[in-house]
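Practice problem: predict the structure.
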Amino acid sequence: MAIGINKEKVILFPMGPVSDELLEWLLNMLPETAGVKGVKEKQTKIPFGAYNRKREQYLGDALLEYIREMDHYMKGTLIGLINADCYAEGHNYIFGEAVLKGYQAIVALPRLRQSFYGLSENPDLFRERVLKEILHELGHTWGFTHCPDPLCAMHFANSLSDIDVKNTHYCELHS
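Answer:
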């Protein structure tokens, strides 16, 4: 990790229902891939005010603000996993979003699943995609910006194929 980056624990918490199996797998992978300890927090409600009825999606910034309000009693980087489609202003959808050099991030799970696109489920591929997105958003909280290297976890993913090409680690620029 780059000098000066505070690598404290990562707190994964489901915003709405998320499988315990996925959470446990991610907790086992975080030390190996990001060098951080992960802990699981209990499920929280998805804030109703973040929902845009017209788009039928949740606004990422509103979810991050909700997480920011939880900051005062949780010590660590908070990553909300939401089993709902999300967007950011100017984008049709997002896989995740984070506060640069902050302590809040979200990862939206639906578009990381094969079934979202009418394909057969692939649980291993889904878990790997979620991990890559967590690593990407976690990197933003540490101050990492997008990387031009398509293999780096910090490369901007505009599609699933971009995620699938990435590694589950950071390149030399971010290590």
